[in-house]
Amino acid sequence: MMKTSDMKIIFKGLRIYAYHGVMPQERTIGANFTIDLSIKTDFSKACLQDNLEGTINYADVLQYIKAEMKISSLLLENVAYRICQRLLNEFPNIEEIDILLTKENPPMGADTKSCGISMHCSRS
């Protein structure tokens, strides 16, 4: 029998157009945002039984992320926090989440591909 551990569901490079930013035009014009997400959960049951009930449905995760991204916010810190909170509320089998949320070409007077935040969330 094989032992499994440190299981994670990964979203890498998820691009969503949304309306977040401190400046009013950012919330009017919008921008591309990229999300990298690592969800720690035990999906050993799915490994053995090949059944969706033993893991987290990626499509459901995506729908919750999209719903939170639709809510305009001043700060990416707030958006990332809401995404993590929503996922922890919706999926009791999530242990931890690591999120990286970046805004492409932010209007801050510098030539940069993207700028953003990362955070680690876990159940208290």
Looking at this protein, list some descriptive labels.
4-stranded antiparallel β-sheet; 4 helices; 124 residues; 4 strands; alpha+beta
Q: What can you tell me about this protein's structure?
A:
There is one protein chain. The chain is elongated. It has a 4-stranded antiparallel sheet with strand order 1-2-3-4. It has 4 helices and 4 strands. Helix 3 runs antiparallel to helix 4. The relative contact order is 0.21. The longest helix has 15 residues, at 76-90. By secondary structure, the chain is an alpha+beta fold. The protein has one domain (8-122): GTP cyclohydrolase I, C-terminal domain/NADPH-dependent 7-cyano-7-deazaguanine reductase, N-terminal domain (GTP Cyclohydrolase I, domain 2, 2-Layer Sandwich), CATH 3.30.1130.
The radius of gyration over CA amounts to 16 Å
CATH architecture: 2-Layer Sandwich
Distance between the termini: 33 Å
Total of DSSP H or I helical runs spanning 4+ residues? 4
Proportion in β-strands: 25-35%
Helix content: 25-40%
Task: Break the fold down into its secondary structure elements and pairings.
Elements: E1 8-18, H1 24-29, E2 31-41, H2 44-49, H3 58-69, H4 76-90, E3 94-104, E4 114-122
Antiparallel strand pairs: 1-2, 2-3, 3-4
Helix pairs in contact: 3-4
Short description:
The chain has 124 residues and is an alpha+beta fold.
